[in-house]
Amino acid sequence: MQLKLKPTEEDKDKKKPGRLNPSRVRDHLANERTYLAWMRTGIALLGFGVVIVRLRAFQVPLIPHPGNGWKLGLVFSLVGLITVWLSTVHYFAVRRDIEEDTYEPTDRWVLLFSLAVMILGTGVIYFVFTTSLDPSSPLIPE
């Protein structure tokens, strides 16, 4: 039978910082999954922006100028790039907080991206319902 001694102050000081949380590995893996989900979202927004701009290539342009559709595609692409950048910054901040065992969830990212997607969705709805579907129409409002 072995006797277990209580850890001394020296033993407590020898522990590495951030090792107090027993679910640390699980927390890091969850942080990485969240980061990858944000990356997929950013890539999807970039791709959607390109699709919006390139849809004009499938339609015979009746107006010689490019119209306003490219602006919506540009906004989607920029929001996609911003999503990639902010998700990377957030990933490293959460990683640091997990290591220091000081993580507190924030609502600002959820609110920020929900607002961005709502604004982009409004732009898509406006663009779809104001663009003529008939390619022979003399007026294509863009």
Entry keywords:
single chain; 142 residues; mainly alpha; 4 helices; 65% helix; disordered C terminus
Could you give a quick summary of the protein structure above?
By secondary structure, the chain is mainly alpha-helical. It has helices at residues 9-14, 24-54, 69-100, 108-130.
Structure, described:
The protein is mainly α. It has four helices and no strands. Helix 3 runs antiparallel to helix 4. It is elongated, with a radius of gyration of 25 Å.
SSE class: mainly alpha
Mean pLDDT: 77
Distance between the termini: 84 Å
- Sketch the topology as an H/E string, one letter per element: HHHH
Helix content: 55-70%
Oligomer: single chain
The radius of gyration computed from the alpha-carbon positions, rounded to a whole number of angstroms, is: 25 Å
How much strand? under 5%
The low-confidence parts are 138-142
Count of individual beta strands: 0
* Rough outline: elongated
Specify the number of helices. Answer: 4
Largest sheet: none
Set out the fold topology.
Elements: H1 9-14, H2 24-54, H3 69-100, H4 108-130
Helix pairs in contact: 2-3, 3-4
